[in-house]
Design goal:
single chain, alpha+beta, Beta Polymerase, domain 2, 4 domains, 23 helices, 9 strands
Length: 432
C-alpha cells in the first residue's frame, strides 16, 4: 500500500481509477460510467473544477479497499446542482439541502453531492454552515487529513492538507486542534479510534488522548442512533481486537460501551480464518462481547433501539448460553431438532457464538457442523389436521393438542414416525 501511495504522490495526474489494479478496486471502477455522467452534468462547458470526489471513497480507493458510499464536493450552490441534474433528467433527492447536500441517483448508484462549506457555529452535534467557493476552507472543516483528499474525474489529486502523506506514513491526524475538532462533533472520538485502528502505524499522540478524555462526556449530546451507526462501522474492522490491546483505547471504549465486558473473546475471533471470520456480522460480533446467561443485552437493545429481529437473536443466544457448554448440544440429533424448531439462522448463530466463547469444545469440528446445517433438508411433519379428522377428531382445541402431541413425539424420535402404530391408537380412540 505504501509504495502505491508514493507512486500517487509522485505522479498525481494519473487517473485515480488506475492507481490500483486490485480486485478490491473494481467496484470503484464500475462506477466510472455513472460518475462521469454526474461530473459532466455539473461541469458545464468551459468548467473543469466544479466538482471533485472527496472523503472515504478517495481514501479507500487509494488503499485498494472496497466501498459503497461516493461523496462529491462542489462549488455550485445546491439550487444550481438541482437545476443541472434536472436538466439532464438525473434523479435526485434533496437529502440535506439546508446543509448543501443533494443525492444524485443513476442506475441505483448514489452520489452525495455537497456544496463547499465552512462552519460558522457548532455545538458538538450540529453545525451552522456557510457555503463557500474556497476548497481549502471546505477541507479545513473536515475531521482528519486523510478525509480531506479530493480528486477530479480525471484522477487529479487536490490535497491541501497533505492527507496523502499522512496516509502514506500511517498517521491519523486531526485537522488543526484535536480538541476543537472534537468539540465540533463529539462523535469524532469514535471516528478517531476507527481510523486509527484501520490505518495508523504509529502510537497514540498524547495530546489527542488528553483531548478525548477531557471531552468524552460530550458523547452524551450525541444521539444513540448516530453512536450505534458509528459502532457498526467499528465492528467491521478486521483488527477490531487491537482496540482492546492498548490501554488508552481500551479504557475509552469501555467507558463509552460498558456492556463490552467480554471483549477478550475477540482474541478467538481474530484468530479465525477469513473463511470463518466472514460469517460473523456486526450483531453476532456484538453478541460475542456482551452476552452471557443474564439478560444484560436487553438494556443494550433498548438503549440503541435495535430491531426486534436483533433482540430475538440475542435472546436465543442468551437462553442457550448454558447449553452451549455441553457436548450433547452439538449432537446431530439435537442440531436437527433445533433447526426444525427455530430455523437454520438461529442454529448458525449458536454455533458461531460458541466457537468464540466455549474453550473446552476445541475438539469439535465446527466446519463440519456448519456445513451440516447449511445442507440439512428440514423435514415436514407427515400428519395433518385433515388426517386426524378421518378418525373422528373435529376442528378445535382437542384436535390441535393431539396434533401437537404427535409432532413432539415425532421430533423426539429423531423425525421418525410409525404411522401404523398411530393409526391403531387413533382407531381405538375412534371406537371408544
Amino acid at each position: 500500500m505504501l509504495k502505491k501511495i508514493k507512486d500517487i504522490i509522485s505522479s498525481a495526474d494519473r487517473s485515480l481509477f488506475r492507481f490500483f489494479g486490485s480486485e478490491k478496486s473494481l467496484k470503484f471502477l464500475q462506477n466510472i460510467k455513472e460518475a462521469k455522467k454526474v461530473f459532466s452534468c455539473l461541469n458545464e462547458m468551459g468548467e473543469e473544477t466544479n466538482v471533485r470526489f472527496v472523503g472515504g471513497c478517495v481514501r479507500k480507493s487509494l488503499c485498494g479497499e472496497s466501498f459503497d458510499d461516493i461523496d462529491l464536493a462542489t462549488t455550485l450552490h445546491p439550487e444550481e446542482v438541482i437545476r443541472r441534474l434536472g436538466k439532464e433528467n438525473i434523479k435526485f433527492i434533496d437529502t440535506g439541502i439546508f446543509h448543501g447536500t443533494v443525492t444524485a441517483i443513476i442506475n441505483k448508484k448514489k452520489f452525495e453531492i455537497t456544496t463547499l462549506r465552512k462552519d460558522v457555529l457548532t455545538d458538538g452535534r450540529h453545525a451552522n454552515v456557510e457555503f463557500t467557493l474556497n476548497w481549502e476552507e471546505d477541507a479545513s472543516r473536515r475531521d482528519f487529513t486523510i478525509n480531506a483528499i479530493y480528486a477530479d474525474i480525471e484522477g487529479r489529486i487536490f490535497d491541501p492538507l497533505r492527507g496523502l502523506s499522512d496516509l502514506q506514513n500511517g498517521r491519523v491526524k486531526f485537522i488543526g486542534s484535536s480538541e476543537e475538532r472534537i468539540q465540533e462533533d463529539y462523535l469524532r472520538i469514535l471516528r478517531y479510534f476507527r481510523f486509527f485502528t484501520q490505518y495508523s502505524q504509529q502510537n497514540y499522540e498524547q495530546d489527542v488522548i488528553k483531548s478525548i478524555k477531557k471531552n468524552i462526556n460530550g458523547l452524551n449530546k450525541i444521539s444513540n442512533e448516530r453512536i450505534f451507526d458509528e459502532l457498526k462501522k467499528i465492528l467491521k474492522l478486521e483488527n477490531l481486537h487491537s482496540l482492546f490491546l492498548n490501554n488508552y483505547s481500551k479504557e475509552i471504549i469501555l467507558n463509552i460501551f460498558s456492556q463490552f465486558k467480554y471483549y477478550e473473546r475477540l482474541k478467538v475471533l481474530n484468530s479465525l480464518s477469513k473463511k470463518f471470520r466472514d460469517k460473523y456480522d456486526n450483531y453476532l460480533i456484538l453478541a460475542i462481547i456482551i452476552i452471557d446467561q443474564s439478560n444484560d443485552y436487553e438494556y443494550f437493545c433498548h438503549k440503541y433501539k435495535t430491531s426486534n429481529k436483533v433482540k430475538n437473536r440475542f435472546k436465543n443466544i442468551s437462553q442457550n448460553y448454558v447449553n452451549l457448554k455441553s457436548e450433547k448440544f452439538y449432537s446431530e440429533e439435537n442440531i436437527k431438532k433445533l433447526i426444525y424448531l427455530s430455523g437454520k439462522e438461529s442454529v448458525m448463530d449458536l454455533l458461531l457464538f460458541s466457537i468464540c466463547t466455549v474453550n473446552k469444545l476445541k475438539d469439535l469440528n465446527f466446519e463440519e457442523l456448519i456445513n451440516f446445517v447449511n445442507n440439512y433438508k428440514i423435514p415436514q411433519f407427515p400428519i395433518s389436521g385433515d388426517y386426524l379428522k378421518k378418525y373422528g377428531y373435529k376442528a378445535g382445541e382437542i384436535l390441535g393438542k393431539k396434533l401437537k402431541s404427535l409432532e413432539e413425539k415425532w421430533i423426539d424420535n429423531n423425525f421418525v414416525i410409525d404411522k401404523k402404530a398411530i393409526e391403531k391408537s387413533l382407531s381405538k380412540v375412534n371406537k371408544n
